[in-house]
Amino acid sequence: MKKLSNAIIIVHFGELWLRGKNRNVYIQALKRNITEKLAGEAFTLKDDYDRLIITPGRRSNIDDIASKVSKVFGISAYEVAYIAKPTLRSIVSTSISLIRKEGLKKVKIIPHRSHKEFKFDSMDIIHDLANAAQKIGAEPVVKGFESQIYISVKKDAAYIYSEKRRGAGGLPVGTSGRCVVLLSGGIDSPVAAWYAMKRGLIPIYVHVHGFSSNGEASSSKISRIVKLLSEYYPSGHVYYIPSHIFQMGAMKTGKYELVMMKGFMLRVAEEIAKKEGAGAIVTGESLGQVASQTLSNIAAEESTTIIPILRPLIGMDKLEITEYARKIGTYDESIKPYKDVCSITSKNPAISMSPKLFKSISKDINLPGLARRSIKSGAALQ
Ligand code: ATP
Ligand code: MG
């Protein structure tokens, strides 16, 4: 049997084509992100009309590269394809090797020729390959197939693959700018960060912690969650902000402490956004998920924030968010015990606070001042 070699990855970027004039900017960003994701691998990346072709070098493994590619946003679909010469003979023998390797049985043959000057046509491919497939016990069928074999014939080569894989979708990270993600140790905010990246935003993380030093915070599970998220884009910039300055200042706010704390976090995030040139704040809030996440509390806590606050999970159930957390890979780390500052504030938080009251308490406790001092005593760690 001919051994399959010469595998490549064909990358499609669907949605990017909708972007008319900016198309090139998006494709360049995608190429940069793929190159960064594959750092350490041997490969070449080439344009091929409306797609990209990744060719692994000798010391790299195609499956490792494919698994990395599956996490790059902006890729709508990709295929691991084997290269044959653009001759009927080579196409048939490579296809047979693939049918064997994957153990394909009821297989539909799907040829596509973008170069039509060869002596053979699609019917010849189907005919010869069907014959050869039968000889090795596969059953070429049109209806009721269990698998497919795609044969894409180009001028210089034919690409043969059995599976169209779904990519991470979305837009290349960086094409929508930067955002500040309010990251807790919980299940939700890492999923929100993932959604922000999916829509092209580079995340800068802000975590408010209750430890006595930033060093303790940076060696907590937060840094591990950030590491998992950086699988989707290598940005691990985290601001660790201590909560004690706020807690001292907000001691007398009683049942409003939690809403004030959220307001404090937004204030901190907004200051950092200005410094970092980020255009939005992202949180993992979903409406009504916990007693304090009421519309009125949300309205109060954001009443003094100017930059847009994005809440990608606002309409999702906990179950849906949990499924995503598992898929993304952050779930196991998120459920490990952690003392989030929100859980050490008042036991019976207000479920309804007016913006007016929020603004008046903010003034009393000098919330902007508390935020600034906290940022000063925090640290940005890579
Ligand atoms: P999560 O699962 O993300 O912790 P949650 O269901 O626990 O969310 P809340 O505690 O109300 O809900 O937090 C809502 C959002 O506020 C979080 O998703 C996150 O964006 C932000 N947040 C909460 N705690 C912190 C923190 N310690 N540091 C930074 N942001 C936080
Ligand atoms: Mg939480």
Question: SSE layout and pairings?
Answer:
Layout: E1 7-12, H1 23-37, E2 43-48, E3 51-56, H2 62-69, E4 77-84, H3 88-102, E5 106-113, H4 122-135, E6 139-140, E7 147-153, E8 158-161, E9 165-166, E10 177-182, H5 188-198, E11 201-209, H6 214-218, H7 221-229, E12 238-242, H8 244-249, H9 257-276, E13 280-282, H10 295-301, E14 309-310, H11 318-328, H12 331-334, H13 355-365, H14 367-377, E15 379-381
Parallel strand pairs: 5-6, 5-7, 10-11, 10-13, 11-12, 13-14
Antiparallel strand pairs: 1-3, 1-4, 2-3, 4-8, 4-9, 7-8, 12-15
Helix pairs in contact: 3-4, 5-11, 9-10, 9-14, 10-13, 13-14
The structure holds adenosine-5'-triphosphate (ATP) and magnesium ion.
Question: If you had to describe this structure to a student in words, what would you say it looks like?
Answer:
It is a single chain. With 382 residues, the protein is of the alpha/beta class. It folds into 2 domains: 7-166, VC0802-like, CATH 3.30.2130; 177-381, HUPs (Rossmann fold, 3-Layer(aba) Sandwich), CATH 3.40.50. It contains 14 helices and 15 strands. The protein is elongated. The structure holds adenosine-5'-triphosphate and magnesium ion.
Q: State the major sheet.
A: 9 strands, mixed
Task: Give the total of domains.
Answer: 2
Number of helices: 14
Order of helical and strand elements: EHEEHEHEHEEEEEHEHHEHHEHEHHHHE
CATH topology-level fold name of the largest domain: Rossmann fold
